[in-house]
Amino acid sequence: MTVDAVPPADPTHVGELLHTCLESLITSLERDPGARFDAVGVLGGVERRRVLVEWNGSAVVGPAVTVPDLFAGQVARTPGAVAVVCGGREVSYGELDERANRLARLLIGRGVGPESVVGVVLGRSPELLVAILAVLKAGGAYLSVGCRVAGGADRVRAGGRGAGGGAHRPDVGWVVRAGGAVRWW
């Protein structure tokens, strides 16, 4: 096995870690071929501590800022600058913000807020960014539902039943679709 690593990672150390993981995985599956993959311990005690404690820099506390806050700052600095280019269309930060605010007000008016999950059924487009930003501005969380997946929005409405094993999502109540249509399921 050959490992290419970017400093400060040591390729030899990463290779040894991968070897240990694969060896533990194979040993566990030989012992119990029916074991759940997520139940297989692939790291020894020393390696586990290194990954979870020594290499984990999550103790650094960052500023308490949200995506809408960051976006608002960018809008304030450069409202006329191009934020998105898609299919020859250009949308400025100011226009994106205006459209997202309009949709966010609509979502809030229909009850979207903290703890709300909004399904977004849109392809890659400026409208997708408007919808995601609007959901976040309304205080909700968005669930991206692939519009190219068979029955995308219907999978959310049906809670995944009969949708080829889609996950049941009883907590998704709103779906934003093409044309800005917002529906409650």
From TrEMBL:
GO terms for cellular component: cytosol. One of its GO terms (biological process) is secondary metabolite biosynthetic process. This is AMP-dependent synthetase/ligase domain-containing protein. InterPro entries: AMP-dep_synth/lig_dom (IPR000873), ANL_N_sf (IPR042099). GO terms for molecular function: phosphopantetheine binding. It comes from Streptomyces cinnamoneus (Streptoverticillium cinnamoneum). Residues 72-145 form the AMP-dependent synthetase/ligase domain.
